[in-house]
């Protein structure tokens, strides 16, 4: 079986990841179309500020609202999120109102920054990108929401973002208890102040953290279940892309995210008349041999470079046919 078996599965999340420019958005869009045409109700979400899903479909999904994709049989919806809407999206995800101060608190709190450095040297670890953090928030939002059969994420959370899956353990840890204690104390201070006529607003950090923990526990169950989640690794047949994918696999394994499909995109087509093409193709075929042995447990799908960009529904249909 190849990647088309995903059409028969009951996947809740289809995540697509890989190095920059290898064809992630094209693969995510083509798979979302195929899933919708197979009868699933599908939502494709992009948190890429460059509006690449709109560009891929050659349609406009930039309103920030869920938009039905016309021209596709079945039920396909698209959502492009503006990273500036982060606070609101994260509130939706954890089902609690998080105001901007509180969001700043949560993202800057000792909790999350410590969490990113979980057992490692914090200094050396940059914070997760907002695009990945948002896609993580979307996973939390849809994990216990039945509005769509399958949610396809064009910007899959990886590396540092996946560490957020450790939130439940973190909140139960010493640091997590300290964090809750701090929120409790600030709450108590506010109450004392209010006795003297100050404002009476309540700090809801504890409730927010508890809600987040519950959501992460639900999402984690689904993310680790190969019947519910698959992470599709997209690469091109160059050694640099292969090495990057090997590192990606380590991260995914560490967090137990199922990832059995590899798409090797943009393989140079055969053309005996062109020396450059012949050399590139030979190199690509050698690298594909390596890929076959390095990823021998996976289903590997190779796709040649088309002579045109994959843009607009017609090209996505064509790309999808080769892919599936
Ligand atoms: N097999 C292919 N043949 C020809 N063009 C392709 C192929 N796959 C993808 N492309 C084109 O390559 C470009 C990059 O593809 P795409 O946007 O899907 O990559 P990406 O991995 O999502 O990039 P980014 O990292 O910037 O998000 C696009 O112009 C796309 O149309
Ligand atoms: Mg993209």
Describe this structure in words.
It is a single chain. This protein has 324 residues and is of the alpha/beta class. It has a single domain (9-323), classed as Rossmann fold, CATH 3.40.50.300. 48% of the residues lie in helices and 13% in strands. Strands 3-4-2-5-1-6-7-8 form an eight-stranded mixed beta sheet, sandwiched between helices. It starts with 12 loop residues before the first strand and ends with a helix. Residues 113-127 have low confidence and may be disordered. Magnesium ion (MG) is lined by residues 24-25, 48, 52, 154. Magnesium ion is lined by residues 24-25, 48, 52, 154.
* Whole-number count of domains: 1
CATH class: Alpha Beta
Distance between the termini: 10 Å
CATH superfamily label: P-loop containing nucleotide triphosphate hydrolases
* Major beta sheet, strand line-up: 3-4-2-5-1-6-7-8
CA-atom Rg in angstroms: 22 Å
Large-scale geometry: elongated
CATH architecture field: 3-Layer(aba) Sandwich
Provide a compact summary of the structure.
With 324 residues, the protein is α/β, with parallel strands linked by helices. The chain is built from 13 helices and eight strands.
């Amino acid at each position: 079986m190849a990647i088309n078996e995903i059409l028969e599965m009951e996947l809740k999340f289809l995540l697509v990841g890989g190095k920059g420019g290898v064809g992630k958005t094209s693969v995510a869009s083509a798979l979302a179309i195929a899933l919708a045409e197979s009868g699933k109700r599908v939502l494709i979400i992009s948190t890429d500020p460059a509006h690449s899903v709109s560009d891929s479909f050659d349609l406009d999904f930039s309103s920030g609202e869920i938009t039905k994709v016309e021209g596709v049989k079945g039920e396909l919806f698209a959502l492009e999120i503006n990273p500036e809407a982060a606070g609101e999206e994260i509130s939706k995800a954890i089902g609690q109102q998080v105001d901007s101060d509180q969001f700043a608190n949560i993202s800057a709190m000792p909790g999350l920054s410590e969490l990113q450095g979980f057992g490692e040297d914090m200094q050396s670890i940059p914070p997760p990108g907002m695009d990945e953090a948002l896609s993580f928030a979307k996973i939390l939002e849809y994990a216990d929401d039945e509005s769509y059969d399958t949610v396809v994420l064009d910007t899959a959370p990886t590396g540092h973002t996946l560490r957020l899956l450790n939130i439940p353990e973190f909140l139960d840890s010493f640091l997590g208890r300290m964090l809750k204690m701090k929120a409790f104390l600030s709450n108590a201070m506010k109450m004392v102040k209010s006795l003297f006529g100050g404002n009476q607003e309540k700090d809801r950090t504890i409730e927010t953290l508890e809600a987040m923990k519950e959501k992460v526990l639900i999402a984690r169950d689904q993310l680790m279940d190969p019947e519910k989640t698959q992470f599709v690794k997209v690469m091109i047949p160059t050694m640099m892309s292969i090495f990057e994918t090997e590192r990606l696999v380590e991260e995914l394994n560490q967090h137990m995210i199922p990832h059995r499909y590899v798409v090797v995109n943009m393989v140079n087509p055969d053309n005996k008349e062109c020396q450059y093409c012949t050399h590139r193709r030979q190199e690509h075929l050698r690298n594909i041999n390596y890929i076959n042995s390095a990823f021998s447990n996976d289903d590997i799908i190779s796709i040649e470079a088309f002579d045109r960009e994959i843009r607009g529904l017609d090209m996505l249909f064509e790309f999808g046919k080769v892919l599936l």
